[in-house]
Amino acid sequence: MMSVVRKRRKPVAEINVVPYIDVMLVLLIIFMVTAPLISQGVKVDLPKASAEPLDPESEPPIVASVDQQGRYFLSTHPEPNTPLEVVDLAVMVAAELRISPERPVVVKGDGAVSYNQVIQLMVLLQKAGVSQVGLMTDSSLAETAGAGR
């Protein structure tokens, strides 16, 4: 009799990745569907409040202003109505703070100025060495806004 020789099959050493691809496609579809539903920003109703005025006995604050055209002004400049370059403003504020480090610094932004320009002014003041910056407001506007409620 002849002996039958069986060939042994070698085990396949491949990983079946089809189930993983299926899972990844499902996750991709979920993210594609939910991404447009996520809000890009948060709706915020900013509070309308009037702040207490500064003490008239204290040293007057350093007021850094930005107008509608994006020009910068400084209240301590010899000519406060003269626009200043960014570098000059930073140097003058730093010099004022060396003289009196506790002197308050406030930003006065025109109502028509973009938020970005006010933030740029605040960053400029921070680089000049100002640790705390206040925002100047018009108290008459806050009172009329509060009366309309």
UniProtKB/TrEMBL annotation:
Keyword Repressor annotated: no
Subcellular location: Cell inner membrane; Cell membrane
Alphabetical GO biological process terms: cell division; protein transport
InterPro entries: ExbD, Tol-Pal_TolR
Record-annotated membrane-spanning stretches: 20-38
Signal peptide, first to last residue: none
GO molecular function: transmembrane transporter activity
Topology with respect to the bilayer: Single-pass membrane protein
Keyword Cell division: yes
One annotated Gene Ontology cellular component of this protein: plasma membrane
Keywords annotated in UniProt: Cell cycle, Cell division, Cell inner membrane, Cell membrane, Membrane, Transmembrane, Transmembrane helix
Function: Part of the Tol-Pal system, which plays a role in outer membrane invagination during cell division and is important for maintaining outer membrane integrity.
Full protein name: Tol-Pal system protein TolR
Organismal lineage: Bacteria, Pseudomonadati, Pseudomonadota, Gammaproteobacteria, Alteromonadales
